Amino acid sequence: MIKKENNNYRWRFFRSGGFDQVTLDNAEDLRNLGRLDPKLWTVLNCPTTGLEFDARTAALLDKDADGQIRVPEILDAVQWSCERLVDPDILFRAEGLPAAAIADHDAEGAGIKEAALRVLLYMGKPADAALVVADLSDLTRLFSPNQFNGDGVVAPELSTDESVRQLIAEIVDTQGGVADRSGTPGVNAETLAAFFAQAQSVLAWHAEGATDNKLLSPLGSNTAAAALAFENVRAKVDDYFMRCQLAAFDTRASESLNPAPLVYGALGNRTIATGDADVAALPLASIVASKPLPLTDGINPAWAGAIQALRSAVIEPLLGARDTLSVDDWMSVSQQLAGWRAWQAAKPDTAVHKLGIERLQAVVAGDGVAQVTALITEDLAAKVFASTIDAVEKLVRYQRDLVTLLHNFVSLSDFYRGKNKAIFQAGTLYLDQRSCELVMRVNDMGRHATMAPFSGCYLVYCNCERKGEAPMMIVAALTGGHVDELMVPGRNGIFYDRKGRDWRATITKVVEQPVSLRQAFWAPYNRVAAFIESQLHKFAASRDKDIETKTTAGVGAVAVAPAATPAAPPAFDIAKFAGIFAAMGLAVGAIGTMLAAVVSGLFALSLWQIPLVLIGVLVLISGPSIIMAFLTLRRRNLGPLLDANGWAVNTRARINVPFGASLTGLATLPPGSTRSLVDPFADEKRPWKTWVFVGVVIVVTAVLWYRGLFMGLLG
């Protein structure tokens, strides 16, 4: 909740947009900002996105990261900046924060100042130079891999000892690197502990296998080769003995367990290689109940080599020479190799195996791990600079951006005073020989279409596209010029964003509102002209369609119908002809009567009354339109446009006619230009103006004659 305190500070206000706005232009204004009644703030919150404002600065201001910047967050930023600066007036100056401008009266300030000096050193700038946002935009430049940066990650470059550098590189290789602030992969306490534990487990595993244990290594140094030969055929031998046991269980199964003759027929129709997959899929030998596995003759050719390796490396060393292998012999061999196989299954799953047992023994026995641990501890001790650098960045960004936000939040001075564009103005839209300055991004089209019409502005929504960029939607307020040609969506224009990049803008929607009183005056006549033009177009189109239909029907009838004697023309109906002329006469008479009444009415007036009558007719026709336009222009304001984009505007920010005219520039010839009025392709001139002038002269002459003034002038 915002607390308001009474104080005697003399605030200064300026009036623009129909309301009073506070002036903020010195340090004292900022120091007392927390005492300004929130009801006098122009805005109570604004979004952090969709603005022409630095996104990183907006994120720093948004302390609760909810996407909105509120009054308390503004006050916290202002108060913190005033406390951390020797003279807060520097916030109103051009970008650049010298280290000397940072107040060091307490520990926090001293730390920020020391960090700022170190940044200047890292950037190669003198100690009295000014820090700018670009110096802190890439923090990896401030944290070299050969310097302690407080993140607890050490890279190989941080040590001058070659053995330690090698150990760090090996840990990164086997455990994966952790990026430090410089972006270089390194080692932290977790990866170091994991590496050391894995190295110990690998050494323990090797130690278990190196013991003189007949159960683990029945063939001594040849056990590994024997186990490999055993594993290569284990599944296939198990399959053979299982098939033979099934055949013994039921003699009917033998035929099904052996390959069908069709299988050999398919093999016989193509070339067969030793390693043919179809051959390897066949059983090791023919399936017969309780038959031992032959080790020489009768073996599947695809497995002959593997069985021979099993015989020489496993069976003969363990069981002695033999030509067949029974199921009991096979179970005995499997049991004798079970210890080795279990030991292999317990092999630690880690990449440190690649280092070799001798290197792992040297690492565990040496002091390399202790040295890396010491480097990590020393790096963590430098955490003060790493944490303070964030405060330096915030202070540098606030020096550049905070006052800009205040001039668009506490007041709208950037918008109304025109020296700088407001942060909600996205750029300039060029359309139909005009430039529109009040252009905003549209974040939510549905919400905007609901709220924006209450602004009273004539709005044009455009979809903007540019190669290599995501499309965006904008809305522009037209506050000057004619808008007759903008009512139909699909027209194109050019939008220039605040970076000067051009976008192709296509109108997608128009919200019609009055633009000026002049437009409102002519609106009824334009509507009547448009209606007459529309009716004439419809009448002409219908007559053209009727003629086309009758012509087509007549030609078809002539082509299809047989020749016939022409019918006699109908007799002249004089009564019908007289009726037509009578109707025409009545119409002409009615028009004449109306004109006579109008002329008689004018003749009955004094000369000075005639202009008043004409003015009254104009007021009668255009008056309602002008009144409605006047009321709409009076309520035209900026608030709904901003509210539609997630702002909370705290006042009625009017856009009156003079200010609105400054937001829309119309095409004018440059000063000092010359212009030729000869147009070789001009429309053909019609004498209607002359006839109107002649008609006015006749009416005036008739009035003078009727009043007898004309004869008096002649006499």
Describe the structure.
With 715 residues, the chain is α+β, with helices and mostly antiparallel strands. Among the domains are: 165 residues, no CATH class; 84 residues, no CATH class; 117 residues, no CATH class. 50% of the residues lie in helices and 10% in strands. The chain contains 26 helices and 19 strands. The strands form six sheets. An eight-stranded antiparallel sheet has the order 13-15-14-17-16-11-12-19. Helix 3 packs across helix 17, helix 6 packs across helix 7 and helix 7 packs across helix 15. The chain is flat.
Keywords:
about 725 residues; alpha+beta; 8-stranded antiparallel beta sheet; 19 strands; about 50% helix; flat
List the helices and strands and how they pair.
Blueprint: E1 13-16, E2 19-22, H1 27-31, E3 43-47, H2 55-61, E4 68-70, H3 71-84, E5 97-98, H4 107-122, E6 130-131, H5 133-136, H6 162-175, E7 178-179, E8 185-186, H7 189-210, H8 223-249, H9 253-257, H10 261-268, H11 277-280, E9 293-294, H12 304-319, E10 324-325, H13 327-336, H14 338-345, H15 357-365, H16 368-381, H17 383-406, H18 413-417, E11 427-430, E12 434-436, E13 439-441, H19 445-451, E14 458-465, E15 472-478, E16 492-497, E17 502-511, H20 517-560, H21 574-603, H22 609-634, H23 639-643, E18 648-649, H24 657-663, E19 664-666, H25 688-707, H26 709-714
Antiparallel strand pairs: 1-2, 3-4, 3-18, 5-6, 7-8, 9-10, 11-12, 11-16, 12-19, 13-15, 14-15, 14-17, 16-17
Helix pairs in contact: 3-17, 4-17, 6-7, 6-16, 7-15, 8-12, 20-22
